[in-house]
Structures are given as C-alpha cells and as structure tokens.
Write a structure and sequence with these properties.
Length: 264
C-alpha cells in the first residue's frame, strides 16, 4: 500500500504526477479498445449536429476521445498536463494512422500554448474536478472560451457529484484485465468540500498479492456550481444531460453530468 497521512487517509499526488504514474495501466483499466464501438454513435451525432470540423480535447489522457473524433473526420488538438499521457496519445495515433497534435500544458496555459480557435472544446472523463477550486476552475473555463470560436460549443463530462455526496458511494468501479484488478474508490473528507480519488492495483506475483495505492484530490462539482462558473467564464445556453447519450439529467440518479454550453 502507499503512504498514509496523519489522519489515516492515503497520501495524495498532484494530478500530473498521479496520471504520469497511472499511464501504463490506464488503457487496460478503462477498456480502451472496447469503448470505440460503444461511444462512436453518440459522438457522430454531436459532430454532425454541431458541424464540428475542429476540436480541442482538454485533458485528453491517452487520447481515446481525440482518436474517436479524428476517426469522424475532425481535426483535433489534444492537451494534457501529464507528459506520459501525451506520449501514449502519440503512440496510439501512429498505430491507428491518425494525425493528432498533442500538447503538454496545464489548462491555464492553453491560451499561451495554442493560438488556434476551435468549433468545439471537449473536456471529458471527470477531468475538471482535479482543479483546486472555483478560481482555478474559472481560469480553466476562461482558457477554454479563449480557444472556442464564436458560436462554438464546450462539452464537459463529469461524475454526478450531487448523487455521490448524498449517497457517499465509495466504490466507483472495479475491474480486471490481464490478471490485474483495479478498484477505484473515494475517501470523503470532512465537510464534503474535497474528496480523495484512489486507485488500488492488485496483482498476484509468484503466488503473492502485490498491491499499490495511488490517490489524488478532487473537488465535487455540482450542476448548479458549474453552471454559474460557465456563465462567469462567458458561456451561455448551458444544457445538462445525464450521459453522453444526451438523456435527461436526474440529480438523484444519473451517474454522469454532461454539459453542453455555447460561446456567443
């Protein structure tokens, strides 16, 4: 197990260090190859309905959504704060014959790292809750707005923290791939203003169990909170959905919160 803090919670990493360490396991843990068939129809509708020709994938990870969009004919720039994630995106692009520009940058540095503006900015996979608070969130959302064309859209995907904070559901997922088990779970800190996201990796090596625990802090962003921050950052017409299938958002039951917002 990893080191612990004085209050008994796992010692946490900052987000770039966490995802640098997670990068070798990330595709196996998230079912990288299987997701294309499941998610492509929904992204095809988004691309067609909003006439997306160019996109920024903010917080791209190993590049699943960047690659999916590129397969749909979108010209994609992908940004991540983890160098290891960008390296794996580049590797996937070469293997799949897809040209994607990968850029290593924090969200607040996007305005300096990129000069182009895009039809759409995507920020998927519960990325925004890794930021430190409202000021950092507004800075990130404002950076997204600076790279969005007038009339363009921002699509955000996060977990539904309104449900999670009420149910205090600790286990977020568990799965096995090639003899390794991954358990994703939360620790709830006092007051509910911050969570620790933990990934426990369990592997049997020569008959013995080998475990590794990594943790990173998150802020639980509710739908009302993100709406206010989006409007403060210049976005309008904020629409809320319960999944990328664009079904109705139910604060008490939806697993995800998906936001579609327009830049005037």
């Amino acid at each position: 197990m990893g080191p612990m803090t004085e209050n008994g919670l796992p010692a946490s990493l900052d987000a770039p260090a966490f995802y640098d360490r997670l990068a070798p396991d990330y595709d196996e843990m998230t079912g990288f190859g299987k997701r294309f068939a499941r998610e492509t129809p929904f992204f095809k509708l988004i691309v067609e309905n909003h006439r997306i020709g160019t996109a920024l994938d903010a917080g791209c990870g190993t590049g699943f959504h960047s690659l999916l969009l590129a397969q749909l004919g979108v010209r994609v720039t992908a940004v991540d704060a983890s160098r290891e994630m960008i390296a794996r995106l580049d590797q996937h692009g070469k293997e799949m014959g897809l040209s994607i520009r990968g850029v290593h940058s924090e969200f607040t540095g996007i305005g300096r790292a990129l000069s182009e503006r895009y039809d759409a900015v995507f920020c998927m996979g519960n990325t925004l809750p890794h930021l430190a608070g409202d000021a950092e969130l507004v800075n990130a959302l404002s950076a997204f707005a600076s790279r969005t064309l007038p009339g363009g859209i921002l699509i955000l995907q996060m977990l539904n923290y309104e449900r999670i904070l009420v149910t205090r559901e600790r286990i977020q997922g568990a799965g096995e791939a090639h003899g390794v088990t991954y358990v994703r779970f939360y620790d709830f800190e006092a007051g509910g203003s911050r969570l620790l996201f933990n990934i426990l990796r369990i592997e049997r090596v020569e008959g013995n169990l080998k475990t590794n625990l990594m943790s990173v802090p998150l802020i639980p962003i509710t739908s009302s909170r993100i709406t206010k921050l989006l409007e403060k950052s210049g976005y309008r017409n904020v629409l809320k959905f319960g999944s990328i299938a664009m079904d109705r958002f139910d604060p008490a039951a939806s697993k995800d919160l998906v936001i579609v917002a327009t830049l005037p």
